[in-house]
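Anyone opening a protein record will find just a pair of labelled lines. A complete record is shown below as an example:
=====
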Amino acid sequence: MRHYEVAFILHPDLEETATKEVIEKVQGWIKDSGGTIHKVDFWGRRKLAYEIRKQREGQYIFVYGEFEPSLCAELERNLGLIESVMRFMLTAEESAPAAA
């Protein structure tokens, strides 16, 4: 298993409950594949570097975990199908993130 960072930006007008549901879905996909979640970092609503889908802000979420590389393609596919996800990125980490 490798350490990954899953970063995604949600629509800024998404309600708190819907935001939590999306985060729980991503965590569920990782856990269902046998992976583990180390940390979820919710930055909240921030200004975007450039306009995406006519929006100037977005809700930033970072999920740090450990899972098999074969899950990456499925995670990317699933994140692309969620309408409220404006952008996402998976990054392999060199080592485990520092404990908070």
